[in-house]
Amino acid sequence: MADLPTGMPIQLEPLVIRVLAPNASAYTYTGTQSYVVGGAGDVAVIDPGPDDGGHLAALERAIDGRPVRAIMITHHHRDHSPLARRLSAATAAPIVGAAPFAPGDHGSRADAAFDADYAPDRVLAEGDTVGGDGWTLTALATPGHTSAHLCFALAETRALFSGDHVMGWATSVVSPPDGDMGAYMASLDKLMGRDDRVFYPGHGEAVENPRRLVRGMLGHRKQREGQILRLLREDGQAIPAMVGRMYAGLDTLLLPAAERSVLAHLYDLANRGLVAQEGETWRIAA
């Protein structure tokens, strides 16, 4: 894990400052990266991160007294959205962005990753914009990592804030029921059709050649799909056994995420009529 300074505003380009939150982990890499977007006038803050007083103070230093036009959220996970409430109280800025998690849409399953208190003042849809003095951010619907995930495109510099849809250190976790592999792949295809100059992800370094990375991510997922189908052609398989063969040597802390990813692939394959489930066992569809 890279040794990067937390709480230090880093100017990435004239309209973009990055501030790293102190929440490094096996799932967040060096931590969540918050962004302050704007010049000498007003600004937007993208993904203020976990509810941490030190990170709030760091964001306030980066804002440096400028009016905050909006606090923008790519998705409703606890490492991205909780600090929005305290930042909104401090700046009077509205919270806008991804739709909140709706537990009723997912049966009785509770997911510890979700920010249950996230309640945006405005939900953004594809093409909705938030603008200020010399900057414009446009919402791009990229479901997959979560059902309501958004990216934000900065028109003035062709930068894309990619949240957890495309990260700078690893592929995104796609965990059903809110995560959907079919939607995730379609969202990657969507990004392939764009001409963004750089991606600024929620975790990891800036992506200087976005289309090359996205092409590699699509290939990686298709390779995993092929592995699953080859295993199932041998015999019926339960997910833990499949993960043991597909992810040899993986850190045990990451095994649950790998199992969720394989499940997401299996659901997608089942939706396409290629595999079927029998209890805990998955097989090639008859």
Automatic annotation (TrEMBL):
<dbReference type="InterPro" id="IPR036866">
    <property type="entry name" value="RibonucZ/Hydroxyglut_hydro"/>
</dbReference>
<dbReference type="InterPro" id="IPR050662">
    <property type="entry name" value="Sec-metab_biosynth-thioest"/>
</dbReference>
<protein>
    <submittedName>
        <fullName>MBL fold metallo-hydrolase</fullName>
    </submittedName>
</protein>
<feature type="domain" description="Metallo-beta-lactamase">
    <location>
        <begin position="31"/>
        <end position="203"/>
    </location>
</feature>
<dbReference type="InterPro" id="IPR001279">
    <property type="entry name" value="Metallo-B-lactamas"/>
</dbReference>
<dbReference type="InterPro" id="IPR036388">
    <property type="entry name" value="WH-like_DNA-bd_sf"/>
</dbReference>
<dbReference type="Pfam" id="PF00753">
    <property type="entry name" value="Lactamase_B"/>
</dbReference>
<dbReference type="InterPro" id="IPR041516">
    <property type="entry name" value="LACTB2_WH"/>
</dbReference>
<dbReference type="Pfam" id="PF17778">
    <property type="entry name" value="WHD_BLACT"/>
</dbReference>
